[in-house]
Write a structure and sequence with these properties.
Aminopeptidase; about 30% strand
């Protein structure tokens, strides 16, 4: 099989992701929309850009080295058709895709790092990146919300809920801070409001990976980074039981095709929902 990578029009990429990816929400800061082709058939897509705090991310990974957003891209979405991702006859398809994207970046950009995250909240530790010899940079805990219908909600898409939460506090004569009053919203949904709405706040791990795109970058990663990779046993989850109170839980279940609160993001980025 001949695998090629080339840039495609945004909506070809986002429509494909809507049909095949477990998460329908698109990153806000996307620079490149790449198609993964087997011969002339589109079998996967990858977006390259940055996360919610582009400069903060690279500075946290490499303190005092003077790097900025011009030095790296982050994989926003990596999506491959299940029959290609899972088929044994295709070999390690995910690794082949990663290698092809690395080659495309070397030929078409001046970036020196490719950064990505494995979403431990949905049970991913990054085996595709491990098979591609990415360097591992540890994990951090992150939070999502889950509705009673199982919808997975990233905190960055909760602006309307945060405003509703503030109005709920006012109606119920709950105390608000000066900052909340000035902004007209809270900054994390409060436990009482979540309970009333049937929403849980869940915490899990995100695993960091980085691939060097030149010799200098490789030397930097070899100094302190490694390949002591996480496995399934390293996955953990917590659920909020009250302000500052968390209990460990088994892997949470999400209904990843439910799109209600995330609908605005999806409609903005995909044509097939119209």
């Amino acid at each position: 099989m001949k695998l090629t990578v080339r840039e495609i029009e945004k909506f070809f990429c986002t429509d494909f992701i809507y049909q095949h990816h477990y998460s329908k929400v698109m990153p806000m800061l996307t620079k490149h929309y790449l198609g993964i082709f087997n011969e002339d058939s589109l079998v996967g897509t990858i977006t390259l850009g940055w996360g919610t705090q582009p400069l903060g991310t690279i500075n946290k990974l490499f303190p005092a080295m003077g790097f900025n957003t011009s030095h790296y891209y982050e994989i926003g979405k990596m999506c491959i058709k299940p029959q290609f991702n899972d088929s044994r006859e295709n070999g390690n398809w995910g690794s082949r895709v990663s290698s092809s994207v690395v080659r495309w970046m070397k030929e078409n950009t001046d970036r020196i790092f490719l950064y990505t995250l494995a979403d431990g909240i949905v049970g991913k530790v990054g085996y595709v990146y491990q098979a591609s010899n990415f360097y591992y940079a540890g994990f951090f805990w992150t939070d999502v919300y889950r509705t009673n219908e199982g919808e997975k909600i990233h905190p960055r898409t909760t602006r309307e809920l945060l405003m509703d939460n503030y109005e709920w506090l006012i109606r119920n004569k709950k105390p608000v801070t000066q900052k909340q009053e000035k902004q007209g919203r809270v900054f994390w949904l409060t436990p009482d409001f979540l309970k009333e709405k049937g929403i849980n706040r869940i915490r899990g791990k995100m695993f960091r990976y980085m691939y060097p795109l030149n010799k200098k970058a490789r030397r930097i990663l070899e100094d302190g980074w490694g390949q002591n990779y996480p496995k399934d046993k390293d996955l953990e989850w917590k659920i909020q039981k009250g302000k500052g109170k968390w209990d460990y839980i088994d892997r949470p279940k999400f209904s990843l095709n439910v799109v209600n609160i995330n609908q605005r993001n999806v409609e903005r980025n995909c044509r097939i929902t119209a």
